[in-house]
Amino acid sequence: MNKGRLEAFSDGVIAIIITIMVLEIKVPGGETLTTLKPLIPKFVSYILSFVYVGIYWNNHHHLMHAVKKVSGQMLWANLNFLFWLSLFPVAAGWMGENHFALWPVVVYGVVLFLAAVSYTILVMVIEKTEGENSLVVNAIGNDSKGKISLLFYVAGVALSFINPWFGVTFYFIVACIWFIPDRRIEQAMRQQNTIDEKH
Amino acid sequence: MNKGRLEAFSDGVIAIIITIMVLEIKVPGGETLTTLKPLIPKFVSYILSFVYVGIYWNNHHHLMHAVKKVSGQMLWANLNFLFWLSLFPVAAGWMGENHFALWPVVVYGVVLFLAAVSYTILVMVIEKTEGENSLVVNAIGNDSKGKISLLFYVAGVALSFINPWFGVTFYFIVACIWFIPDRRIEQAMRQQNTIDEKH
Amino acid sequence: MNKGRLEAFSDGVIAIIITIMVLEIKVPGGETLTTLKPLIPKFVSYILSFVYVGIYWNNHHHLMHAVKKVSGQMLWANLNFLFWLSLFPVAAGWMGENHFALWPVVVYGVVLFLAAVSYTILVMVIEKTEGENSLVVNAIGNDSKGKISLLFYVAGVALSFINPWFGVTFYFIVACIWFIPDRRIEQAMRQQNTIDEKH
Amino acid sequence: MNKGRLEAFSDGVIAIIITIMVLEIKVPGGETLTTLKPLIPKFVSYILSFVYVGIYWNNHHHLMHAVKKVSGQMLWANLNFLFWLSLFPVAAGWMGENHFALWPVVVYGVVLFLAAVSYTILVMVIEKTEGENSLVVNAIGNDSKGKISLLFYVAGVALSFINPWFGVTFYFIVACIWFIPDRRIEQAMRQQNTIDEKH
């Protein structure tokens, strides 16, 4: 099967998701600077979501790079991941429109959580297909970063009921953790190359 | 001719269709959880349609993989298929907006039916171009799965006049039938490889 | 320079144009079949425009296939062509919304005409870059098909002032003329291959 | 790492940005020619923005062509650039909707300025990764064109407070300066080829 087409399709969907999020920022009604003011929370929500989708694209890019065989299960796990990612624009729009109120922040966190779960499933399916001792398994390891993220999302959602800004802060922290692309795969690949050259 | 560009264009269109469907789920008006309630049928409609477009992408992916020569007729049969696929967002939106009422469910079924017919035409054009004994012909065979789907769509549309949920159930069953990607092609390719290796 | 990226970008833009046209068909307000009635002219306009964009994609596909060197001028001629193509959705939407009234039909014809002119410019720039005796020059020849189209657009726009349906008919005839993809290039390539094999 | 996928993703995002800008030109309400009149400033704004995005795509095309190694930093600098580019549709729509009034013109200029800054950062990151004596460093040199652009944007924004049309004129001049694609890279590549051939 063809890895290239899976990457191209995923890139297409992610490119569209990251771009249609900006459509939630509607052209303001007046021509004065004050008419931009209601757009500020939407803009903050857009930046956060843009960074999130960017992180996922980066990690997806690294993950797929390590894939050797594409299986039918992988295609579906990938589509499942893209499905949850596709809910980012509407969740981000709702959160921005309502100035980071309780329920929009909670729902945004749930969408982030489910996207992270679906990404974890994708990684697991790939690891199963590629087999032990594969590049992906060596690179991801026990995936402590992924597990911490899931914990932080749950904490963020829970703490939002005290104050929604706690939730936003936790989501922001996860973004910071992931901001650094998955160097583990890069490192594993370099090691693999070194091993290959020795033989 | 260039198969890669046909795949890339189809991937682009399918990626856009699958993503703009989410635009039918408008950002809700209020900030409470109850304002999400009217979105539930739209969300269900979105999931069903996402799975459908995902199935078509998967099968298209497998089908194109088996293609060796691209003809002018194939380009048009492919565009015809993409045309019917492009009606999914508006049909799904109408069905979700009206809580699976009679006519929206019927029209959705008709669009599903015509998309399936156009896909069958695409397969037939490819089989004709590739010739007998080709990979595609061996793989698809008499296409019983495709014929059953067409029958189920007709049944679903007809039974909707008794209760629209019968229709939705039938559409859902077809999705389940196709959920498993077209392993027939995968199998045929493996056999082909075995034969090639023997010679 | 990289022909692949020019093709990929053009495919992306054309894929988006062909798909966002469907967004002009808004989800109808009611749940009865009669609420679909106002969509019929929009749907007809969508079909006509889909076929047009499909024809351009097909011909662009063939044209680029014959290109050997990509120049800076070619990039701009290509962007100019994509610009006029990008006006199809709004022109088609206006024509459909107003049930093929005079001015929408005239403006649609003018957009078709200017897209055709920009495509002709693209062909000329490519012919100039590729040089005489190139594949493209042999294939396109004196481009009688392109010249007839321009004439028919002008005629269609003019006759719309008697009755807009004359205009629509003329636009439809041009679509029929071009429906057959540019076999001239296919033929020229086959001849080229035959010549290459002889040497 | 894979340069192809970075290019494909950037092309996807840029293709979507350049195309969704046209969605700001809404289908006019009436069927007479006069209903098109309010669209004129939007159309002018669309043309200017289309040319800008086209210029960036062209230069990005040339820049990436000279890249040999893709680093994690490069991915983020590229995403940052795409972020600012994604604000063009809403900024252009606001400017067009308000007939080039003061604040929309100022904000448009600020977006242009920040996109230019983010592009400069991308160039700097690439130059750092590729190292001295690389193709990119030789080609871009001290980037006088980029520095002049930044200056013109600042001047345009400042002069808008006297008359917004001064601002628009300055933005237009920058577009003219860049209209000619970055031939410096093309020249440097040709020289490189000549050097390579000599050895």
What best-fitting shape of chain A do the alpha-carbon axes yield? globular
State the end-to-end distance of chain A: 28 Å
Number of domains of chain A: 1
Rg of chain A, Å, rounded: 19 Å
List the secondary-structure elements of chain A in sequence, H or E. Answer: HHHHHHHHH
Strand content of chain A: under 5%
* Major sheet details of chain A: none
- Kindly report the greatest chain-chain contact and the residue count on each side: B-C, 33 and 33 residues
Oligomer: homotetramer
Number of strands of chain A: 0
Helix % of chain A is over 70%
* Whole-number mean pLDDT of chain A: 85
Helical element count of chain A?
Answer: 9
- Provide the low-confidence segments of chain A as ranges: none
Structural class determined from secondary elements of chain A: mainly alpha
Organism (chains A, B, C, D): Pedobacter frigidisoli
GO molecular function (chains A, B, C, D): potassium channel activity; proton channel activity
Keywords (chains A, B, C, D): Ion channel, Ion transport, Membrane, Potassium, Potassium channel, Potassium transport, Transmembrane, Transmembrane helix, Transport
Pfam families (chains A, B, C, D): TMEM175
Provide a quick synopsis of the model.
Four copies of one chain form a homotetramer. By secondary structure, chain A is mainly alpha-helical.
